[in-house]
Amino acid sequence: MRNLPLWSDLCNRNCQARLVVLSDEQTTTYLGVRVMRRKLAAGNWKMNGTAAALPELQSLATSYPDASVDVLICPPATLLHRAAEAVKDTGITVGGQDCHAAESGAHTGDVSALMLVDAGASAVILGHSERREDHGEQNEDVCAKARSAMDAGLKAIICVGESLEQREAANTLDIIGGQMSGSIPDQSTGENLVVAYEPIWAIGTGKVPTLDEIGEVHDFIRARLERRFGEGVGRSVRLLYGGSVKPGNAAEIFAVSNVDGALVGGASLKAKDFSGIIDALQKA
Ligand code: 13P
After folding, report:
1. pLDDT tens, 236-270?
2. Has 45 been labeled as part of a binding site?
3. Residues 225/181, Cβ–Cβ less than 8 Å
4. Of 43, 140, 267, 273, which sits 20 to 30 A from 34 (CA to CA)?
């Protein structure tokens, strides 16, 4: 029984149980109920943006009063509260880019999950390859942060991805599998977990894996989630692709199986570019 999801897992805010017939791409059936994963366009501003960027965010928010997909912007921590105020009462939510595993304490320069919630965040990106590289974050660090984020009521967007060397050595799936086992906590559900596949070599480079390569990894991630958490939870977790997503390539990426949206860096900084990606996701 341990792996059986609660009804609330199936009918949470991300997964709408529908009686209408939807395409197989959009839905999955569990215990006789069709579950739809609500698509998600997430923008990671990284270490970019001051108060001057807030009008850009407001302009994005006014363009999407009623988006049919979730839209999330993760600005730097210094802007989080003001960004939350800027998108208040719109369809857009904001998130953090990292958090400490502890609730509070002597950790100079760090921000806790509770502090992100206090600033208005609904989600937090964890284990981004830039944090794994710049700050030496290991899978167990990411897992501890994700537990803390989930306990605080945040969605944890956990990033996984291989280097070019690992891909060329045909180790991609082993690397992704290891990162998933080590970084994703046992308490994960379709509500509190999003997994982002971001090949390191595709981030900010303009290089994108082939659609088959993206599909292979996303199908692998889905199968691993189903094996570990059971089909109900495994099928309700959203999987994002990240790495050089632009308005021009978004539609074809969103057509790949088990791609439920994108985690976007550079193209999320300009409302016009991010709008092109949101529009493609709404049509997918
Ligand atoms: P780019 O979209 O700039 O390649 O960045 C991807 C990314 O790292 C998002 O987290």
Report:
1. 999 999 999 999 999 999 999 999 999 999 999 99
2. yes
3. no
4. 43
At which residue do the structure tokens 């550079």 appear?
Answer: 266
pTM of the model: 0.90
Structure tokens at 121: 């965040």
Q: Which residues make Cβ contacts (< 8 Å) with residue 116, sequence separation at least 6?
A: 77, 80, 95, 96, 99, 124, 149, 152, 154
Tokens of 209: 């894996």
29 CA → ligand 1 middle, Å: 32
Residues in contact with ligand 1 (CB, 6 Å cut-off)? 44, 128, 198, 203-204, 242-245, 263-267
Centre of ligand 1 to C-alpha 33, Å, is 35
Q: Which helix (H) or strand (E) holds 228?
A: helix 211-229
Domains and CATH numbers, the chain: 40-283 (3.20.20.70)
Tell me if 237 sits within 8 A of 193, measured CB to CB: yes
Nearest atom in ligand 1 to the alpha carbon of residue 266 is: 3
- Could you tell me which residues come within 8 angstroms of residue 190 by beta carbon, excluding any fewer than 6 positions away? 5, 9, 10, 12, 14, 15, 37, 232, 233, 235, 236, 237, 238
128 is catalytic: yes
* 196 Cα nearest atom in ligand 1: 10
Residue 176 phi, psi dihedral angles, 5° rounding: -65, -45
Q: Which of 162, 198, 226, 231 is catalytic?
A: 198
Nearest CA, atom 1, ligand 1: 265
